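Table S2 (continued). Query chain:
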Amino acid sequence: MATIRKRGNSYQIRVSCGYDTKGNQVEQSMTWKPEKKMTEKQIEKELNRIAVKFENDCMNGYLTATIKFQDFAKQWFKEYAEIKLKTQTLRCYHNMEKRVYNAIGHMRLDKITVRTIQKFVRELTEEKKYNSKGEVIGKLAPKTIKHHIAFISTIFDYAVRMQMLQSNPCKNVTLPPIVTKEREVYTLEEVQQMLDLFEHESEANFKYVIFFTLAAFTGLRRGELLGLEWKDFDFENCLMTVVRTSEWTKEKGIYTDTPKTKSSNRMLKIPAELAAQLLRFKEWQDNYKTGIGSKWVETDRLFTKWNGEPMGMRSPYKFFEKFCKRTGMRFVSIHSFRHFNATAMILNGVDVKTVQTCLGHNDATTTLSIYAHSFQEARVRAMESVADCIYSRRKDKNPEQLSD
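Corresponding output:
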């Protein structure tokens, strides 16, 4: 039974929620303040309604979340995030803590509403963005704002699962629209140009030649490429498996992790010519290992430092940047090879489910969203091919009529 006490112009509602493991009674309380125009009868009716609802919520396990957001977020990191989430995701969330705590860290969970989160969104849209020199270079990108709200929402989802709240206030927030920029992708001619230029590279750069050749033919993410080991290849059947990634953080240095999603664990078919090139690279690496002897650290990785340790994350980028300057080839990010691979499949009529599987996306919706433009172009080509087929057959039957 709820206990109601009047305190000045407001009322305190207190409910017993049973006992804890030490036998101490657990109580929850809330404060309600009636509107000034309400009559005593209206106050009594509304007070009883709120008290009954509050008592039912407590009995059903939805306890009033009186803990402050920052304190609960720290608990969430320890109880859930550090156990369940990947290191890179954790790192991103920790980078967002300062802004989030400054805005809502001091507030109780149960006092944070949709309007509270919406106000934070507005503040983020007005926040200035600075470069390394401290110069203003614009405002926060809509995608950055979306990530901050996703971080908050994840914590509230956990509170709901723990039956501390009934709903997540982030669910009904309106976010600024994300303007999709046209993606820079290498053309087929540029990739062919790169492969031709690679034929003139020195042996010292053989590992980078293999890295970018694999990137173009397989569409693997950078971390997946750097995580490849020789045991991942079945050269007899021209197959390769993706089962790990190589990552880096300031705290841990280079470390091995599982792929981004469950679907990222996959098997891919590679061309026989590429398999043969990989075998030549393995032979080169084996000879190199023999040459430096005990200095070699065996990791079974394809892409390594001079002594066999896993290659650094930025090494391929640095090589390719210098390579493009030296050869005059257009420089685009390493990730563009993944986009090239996906676009090439789509424009050659590969269905979305197969593209999704090859890229290691969690579901086809992700693939359709990222490569919507390519799928649209493929549909246009398909319709044009149908039209060409129909008109060519009619022209063969009656060329004079169609020429009039």
